[in-house]
Amino acid sequence: MNEGAYHEALCDTDEGRTIFLRNVPFEMTEFALKELVERRFGETLYVKLVFSKTTQLPKGVAFIKFKNIESVVKVLEGEKSAEKYYNEHIFQRRGDSSGSKNSNTLVLPPEVGIQYNGRRIFAHLALSRSEVAAVENKKASKNQLPKVKKDLELLKKGLLLPGMKGTEGISSHDLRLRENSWKEIKIKMNNPNYEVNKFRLCVRNIPTKMKSCELNNVIIQEISKLDDNKVYNLAKEIITEIDESENSDCGNVTSLRRISKTLKRNINSPKRCRNIFKMLIKKVNIIRENSLKTSKSRGFAFVNTISHSFSSTLLEILNNNPKAFTYEKRPIVEFAIDDKRALFIQRKRIKKNFNKCKDRSSNNMDNIQKKAIHAI
């Protein structure tokens, strides 16, 4: 199919003969996908895998246009059967306490849905042009909300001020700290040089003698206390977030994809999921008066993660938790605010150091070659 004919075919989704596939294996070719689908559902007009513009690698999604509408009906019926089978068996396994070896895996029967080497491929009717336009308009209307307001809504998560519900038991000292922190946040958010980092938490009111490793242990301990339903829901949120970040060409895709696959395999094992959650913590760093580790703590720390859903959950379980530190001295947790100027300088410094190392290594190679030539 030539390029003009292909673009023409993409525009006729109003006919209802185009199917959108996701979770397509990255190693699968268009020919293999076409052969797989036509063998069960009927003749297709085209099969098109979607590739990333930046990496030129497959995104794991595809479009298929069938010749007959009956084939589309078969695909959608198969998808419904697969979803029904999955839901029935997944809840049985979640409630199964026998601890069988295969309780964490669910393989669909070969005649149910679309599968490739035991991997389920999800099928949906492709959106029509009018539906795509409606979705884009909806996104545009959401984006019209000023970024400052969005960031403030994010920063309000876990906010506890005097007179608010949930402040029972908080000491007057901690309430005063929270109030001052909120005033500082509002001042910063009026400055365009600051932005909220949804993958980074700021933990205040930390005991002065606490070390970074001890704070990390506190976080891990609180993660281990999450109930099974919360673990299951969080795992699903993280998987969805990672899948969406892959489709938006987010960086560090390989490690995220690995975590997503591991979570999918172990989603029915809360214990294993809790262990996987620990991998989402990138760094826990208590800020001190100077660069020496023995120097006095400034009473706050930053916790970097690779998942916004996980960061939000950490905020919920740590913020105002009387068991984390002491009953009187409770953690004040909020999303961190980054200074764009400082980040720019930091990136510039890293790039400069990288170039220096690169030049040094190339000079060393030149010297080695000169010595080798001289020796000859």
From TrEMBL:
Chief place of localization: nucleus
Coiled coil segments of this chain: none
GO cellular component, one term: nucleolus
InterPro entries hit by this protein: Nucleotide-bd_a/b_plait_sf, RBD_domain_sf, RRM_dom, RRM_MRD1_RNA_proc_ribogen
Compartment annotation: Nucleus
Species annotation: Cryptosporidium canis
One GO molecular-function entry: mRNA binding
Domain RRM: 17-128
Lineage: Eukaryota, Sar, Alveolata, Apicomplexa, Conoidasida
Pfam families listed in its UniProt record: RRM_1
Alphabetic keyword roster: Nucleus, Repeat, RNA-binding
Name recorded for this polypeptide: Nucleolar protein NOP4 and rrm domain-containing protein
